[in-house]
Input
Amino acid sequence: MQRRTLWLAATLAATAPAAHADELSALREEVAQLKKSYAERIAALEAQISRLTPAEPMPVKTGGGTPSATGFNPEISLILQGQAKRMKDVPERGITGFWAPGGHDHDGPEKRGLSLEHSELVVAANIDPNFRGHLNVALLDGQAEVEEAWFQTLGLGNGLKLKGGRFLSGIGYLNEQHAHAWDFADAPLMTKALFGEHYAQDGLQLKWVAPTDLFIELGAEAGRGAGFPGTDRNKNGSGAGSVFGHVGGDWGPSSAWRAGLSYLATRAQARSGHFEDGDPAGPNEVEGQFSGKSRTWIADFVWKWAPDGNARSSGFKFQAEYFRRTEDGTLACAADAAALPGSPCIGHPLGAYRSRQSGFYAQGIWRFAPAWRVGYRYDRLDSGRLTADLLDDGVLDGATGALAAYAPKRHSVMADWSPSEFSRLRLQFARDKSMLGVTDDQWTLQYIMSLGSHGAHSF
Amino acid sequence: MRLFLAIWAVLLALPSHALEVFATVPEWAALVKEIGGDKVNVFAATHGMQDPHRVEARPSLIAKARRAELVVATGAELEVGWLPIVLREAGNPRIQPGQPGYFEAAGFVRMLDVPARLDRAAGDVHAAGNPHVQTDPRNILKIGEALAERLAALDQANAGAYRAGLAAFTAKWRAAMARWEKEAAILKGVPIVVQHRSWSYLVDWLGMKEVAALEPKPGVEPSAAHLARLVEQTAASRPRLVVRAAYDHPRPAEWYSAEAKIPIVVLPFTVGGDDAAKDLVSLFDLTIRRLSEPLR
Output
């Protein structure tokens, strides 16, 4: 019994390889056939899929997941800005030879040390096929200032666009840009002297683009005219008007330019500023009030260059603006007779006033690496010609403040680092000679961060 | 007033009307030209050596958009930094988004790299997916079909010409695709490193393997430390090529190529990205040749 088992085992052991080999090859063949038929079927199905795919319309993906009412939310963006500034402690900062736009601003927007600048909240969207809406609010402790709140037409056609509400005026180049888009931490002296920070209109703007290859744009605005150099005058109709024209184009594939000419006409009624009187016993601080016409011309030019128009890792931007302002009217002098009985203002309330001022800035910004830029800016103003009866009569002192003859100057250099389009850190040094007798070396370290859907910037 | 009259006189004196097309990038300008022939007058807002992400809303673009009857854009936020301004400033209602005169190519193809999570901490991500759809010739075909329909709808008098133009282009394109696919067979499964994720569609079409991107995050320049780490990380997957677009900053790819000891391939990315990439066919001829040459 045991021997038979052994023999069987031996026989089995001997025949097994042969039997297995047959079975294996059969199986292999079966697998190969299956593979082949599946491959054919898969190919046929894939062909069918690719035949059908173009026929079915692809949905346009908006990235917002399932479409819902929130998909209509407007584009919201927020800009955070702050700085650390080192400069001299000058009690009343103002550009000598020029009126202070904010009236009398002790604190000013520029603080020494660490400070938070305005945070800008921007909400914008197409309202319907005809209109687009835009709101820009500047937030700072206890205040929310509406910088812009306007609608603009989308469908007027023929190159026409109508904007209504509060908007930054299209005059000049820099005026339409918000502070976060500036290439320096502060505005040029020219902008500060002309408007404070911006010239905003509450009114209407009509712009027309010509149907030509050369970019030609003409615009006109009519507005309330409440902003400096005008004043709010509580009247019906328009208080300020401006017209502007821009031309622009390309010079080859690497550079683009734009040039413009703008004119702003407005009126002031009792626009106040602080002056010193000509009291022989010593100057007193008195209030001067200008009433009359204010007219401003601005010429602007921008040129941008980048190798092959590819501004990613290197590029240059040159920008310059020049202005001329004429003011014609009367200057009144107001002093409290009880407090300042000796002031020559008392009894000399009014006199003719006429001034013609000018100034410019020019700046160059060079991008030398994808994230790095450096820039230089030169500011120069000229207090120009001033004729005022109150000066001639010795009522007001013409040696200091807004009535002094002076040519303010400033040199600024900056370097900024932008690891992405949404963040920027900037270091700036300025030698500021905008105040008579003061040379102020200013250091500024600034951050600008934008959150949310912050898309396009204009040229 | 005299200027106005002079402009009108010039406009009236123009020869027979061709459809004015404003293409944001050269590839769509080339495609419109292929389909439309002499029935269209095409302007390309950018050229092949420009990074399409970094274009300025130049005055000349506003002037061109003012007269355009059709804007052909890529979409998927590729032009988000400048096109919205140009369209709004142009004062031309025909080409506003939502109108027949506004065409977005990305709407007609399957999008790749659609982010699951939208956060700028991930860099310059596009919510709708990777916008560089033109690097896959199959997409060109789909977009061409949609574009021909749009041209025919806008310019009905020449609808026949556009359909004929499309048919001729399709035949030429299919033959060329068969040639490219044969030539590019050796690229199948080849691991590559890219500088920016511009090539997802090309990689998908040719069956290559994108091992890594040199940019740590889309649109963020790589630092030397990051590149050094990347060389180590990618060593195991043995990339054969490092690929960059003609307009990309050359340094990161050069550095990686030297460290990892693999060749750089500079691809034209679009029509005009190289002197030899004169039209869509030569663009892909060159792309396939540049990719496969170092592997032969």
In short: The beta strands of chain B are 19-23, 40-44, 70-73, 102-104, 191-194, 209-213, 241-245, 264-267. The radius of gyration of chain B is 21 Å. Chain B touches chain A through 61 residues (CB under 8 Å). The CA atoms of residues 193 and 242 of chain B lie 5 Å apart.
